[in-house]
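Task 17 of the worksheet. Students: predict the tertiary structure of the chain below and write it out as structure tokens. Keep your answer in the requested format; marks are given for formatting as well as content.
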Amino acid sequence: MLANTQHRRFRRRALSMTSLIDVIFLLLLFFMLTSTFSKYAEVELLSAGSGNIGPTNQPPIFMRLTQDNVSINGTQHGFDNLLETLKIGTDDVEKQTVLVSVGRTVTSQRLVDLLALLGRADGIIVQVLGGR
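Model answer:
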């Protein structure tokens, strides 16, 4: 009898794909329900030579962006009332050029927030200064 059990081979059954498909379906359902769908905002960027803006009589406004604050022509200002501080778009027909210099520690999200805020004003041409 011992000889019969030694000669008897273990027969493998075919793998069932049902449990694997169930697991994949549950993972798909989990990731679909836990993900968030948000709409990303667009920030319009133009290359240096793409604008057709002539020289203006107004001097440009120099804005320095750091991680903590914003300075306009050397004076520190808050980020929340920046458009009121600039006072742009009142009675002037010409557009005002704003030169934005970015500090070394500024995140890209902070720059995008500033560009989105300045993009709401009608009379502004924004130029981001490059280089470190």
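Marker's comment: DSSP finds four helices and five strands in the chain. The mean pLDDT is 78.
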